[in-house]
Amino acid sequence: MTNNSTTLSLLLLLLSMAALLILNPPTTVIAEKHVPVEAESKPTTKKPEPFNAMNEFCNQKANKRDREFCNRVLKSDPRSASAKDNVGLLLISVDLAIGKTNKTREYYIYSWAKLIHHKKPSNSEALISALKDCVHAYEWGIGELKIIPAELKDDPPTASYDALMAHDALQTCDDSLSKNKISNYPVLIRHRSSARYVQLCVDISMTVG
């Protein structure tokens, strides 16, 4: 009897466990597969177009001839392609103007010396006087141009003053050429070209600071 009772008890226990399993089936936990979230795309800073600052400045000029000169001169320096603003353009224009005026000054010194030390025509006194004035004027103007880069760092508005002083210096050469009625084409054309380079420096300097 005891064995039957034990067997019956075990049977009832098994049936109870089976019923519980049917009513509450075990849940299988499935590990979620980690799906990496795409990194948020960072906003990219658009690089400025080449010659952007140069085009913006030069294209503001009303006169077509001035626009073409501005573009041609600045584009002759590779740095203009990546210049970020007019400060960069001014530094470039100053370097170009110094190079141009130095060449003109050297030509005037050579021509002046040649007239003095060689047999000169009777009408060369006026040209000698004008060349002497222009050499001094160019030395003054070049000195003013060389100050501009330092002024841009310390006191930007002063840079325009120095550019104007360089312009005034070359104007004294212009005045002497006119006063002495110089018609020598190589002398005149070099001066006019140099004066335009310096004027470009003045124009850019007026937009800085």
UniProtKB/TrEMBL annotation:
Pfam families: PMEI. InterPro entries: Invertase/methylesterase_inhib, Pectinesterase_inhib_dom, Pla_a_1-like. Coiled coil: none annotated. Keywords: Signal. GO terms for molecular function: enzyme inhibitor activity. Residues 1-31 form the signal peptide. Residues 49-204 form the Pectinesterase inhibitor domain. It comes from the Eukaryota. NCBIfam families: PME_inhib. This is OLC1v1021437C1.
